[in-house]
Each structure stands twice: as C-alpha cells, then as structure tokens.
Amino acid sequence: MKIILKALFAFTLISLLTLSSAMATDLENTLYLDLKDGRVVIELSPDLAPKHVARIKELTRMKFYDGIVFHRVISGFMAQTGDPTGTGRGGSGENLPAEFTDTPFERGTVGMARAQSPDSADSQFFICFAPAPFLNGQYTVFGQVTSGMDLVDKIKKGAGRSGAVQDPDAIVRMQIAADVK
Fold first, then answer.
1. Can you list the residues of the chain whose pLDDT is less than 50?
2. Which of 67, 69, 124, 162 has its CA 20 to 30 A from that of 33?
C-alpha cells in the first residue's frame, strides 16, 4: 500500500511540475492584444512559424504595435493591422521568408499579410472573422485567437472591397503574457 501511495505521489508531483512548465511556456507564446473594447488573447504557434512568431514577439516587446490602426477591415473576411503608416504599404523594414503550412484559415486564425512575393511578410498581420480557405497554403499562419473574438468582431469595418477604414480603430497595446506583471 505504501509503495502505491508513494508512486501515486510521485506521479502527481511530476504531473504538476510538467503542467507548471507548460503554463510558463504558454505565457511566452501568448499575446495580449488590447483593443478599445477589451483584451483579445492570441495563442502563438512557434511550431508552425518559428521565424514569424519570433519577429512578432520582438516587435511587440519594442512596443511597435501600440497605437497602430486596423487600416483594412473587410466584413466577413478579416481585420488587418501592423502598418505604422496606416496605409497598408508600410512595415518594420524586415521581410520574412514564407512559413506556409497546411493549417487552415478559420475564424480567429492570425496570419501574416504580405505583398505578391511569398517572402514579403513584415509586420502586418490579420485576424480572420470567418473561414478563408482560399488563403490556405499561401499565407503564414502564426496564431489563433483563444478569447476575445467578440471584441475582434467589433473592430470598425471598412468600405468596399478594399476594406479601407475611415477613422480606424487602433491597437491600444500589445504584450507578451510572460512580460505582464
């Protein structure tokens, strides 16, 4: 009986330590995207796009995204941000090589925007309002909204096919969860 209890105790302790370690790792790969209406939580996917996740985290820690507007928002499709000029033509100045996978673009998927070249992603990203299978395998998926999608739905929509937004909503603040005290 004592042997069984000791084994059960050891198993429980190991399980708790593993869970604690996993939670710490999750915080390092969790983004807090604060909008005017509240906080959106995004789980990053370094297993899918390690270079993109590393760059997003680097820019986030530099406070690059704080105050940047959602310059292109198309109802039923996606909300795009990450351009410091607010025109859709700007970025941080560092292009990333494509990290395409077979991960589908679903509601809440976070992907990297790019120009025509597959290796032209920079700092702009988008969050899908709905499934967008036509993007699958052509754009890099680097995260998924895990809470606050109702807040993403409230981002001010643009007009027409371009989705250009007059008086657009902005990112209040973006942070890595591990950095929040």
1. 5, 7-24
2. 162
